[in-house]
UniProtKB/TrEMBL annotation:
Belongs to the KduI family. It comes from the Bacteria. This is 5-dehydro-4-deoxy-D-glucuronate isomerase. Its cofactor is Zn(2+). Pfam families: KduI (PF04962). SUPFAM superfamilies: RmlC-like cupins. The keyword Metal-binding applies.
Amino acid sequence: MTKVFIPDQILLTYTYNDRMIFGGIMPQKDALEVELSKDLGVDYFLQRRELGFINLGGEGSVEIEGVTYPVFPHDGFYIGMGTKRVVFRSKISASPAKFYIVSTPAHRTYPTRRLQFKDAVKMPMGDQEHMNKRTIYKYIDASVMGTCQLQMGYTVLEPGNAWNTMPAHTHARRMETYLYTEFGSPTTRVCHFMGVPENTKHIWVEPDQAIVNPSFSIHSGVGTTNYAFVWAMCGENQTYDDMDMVDMHQLR
């Protein structure tokens, strides 16, 4: 997805990989509401779906069923199935909020929940020797809250580190999307690796671009400087560390 955020627009992608919908909502002057009932064959967007989002821009707010909540940078929400009205706004048009949203099919309603960055499950990973020192922040995870299948979080690489998810892995029981963001410099680019281990492909990624990783695919990246990315998963298995590790000798 080469364009995720455009002022006063909603840009969404519907992938048939587990029927995930993901994309960006960037209200600047106007309030924005997702309305896809006709496209999905339902009466309203979240009639049979759940939704998560993380704000990657300035301060904003979200109105859920008539109640408005502030959403600060790097904060988010989980919104349960059956919620009829969700409206996104920015507090200051010169510094608009950038809501990265992910929605997946749901079979029951779990409580809507505010997700503040300070409360995310923090997992330090990697080391400087392997240039992959980073922190994973888990926002939506079945080990700490109710969710039908959506998992979502935010990973930040420390300065001087470039690799994520290497050694690589796959997880055949769920797919994953990456949104690369917050690059260490204006000229930073990330090379994302995907595909089956024996025949990988690569894609050069610019800031705020997203990639779909099918369940059979590795998903790894290396940047010219440090960066961050938002990951989201859905599928049959909600266990975060349910991974099939790939031997480095397999990679081609």
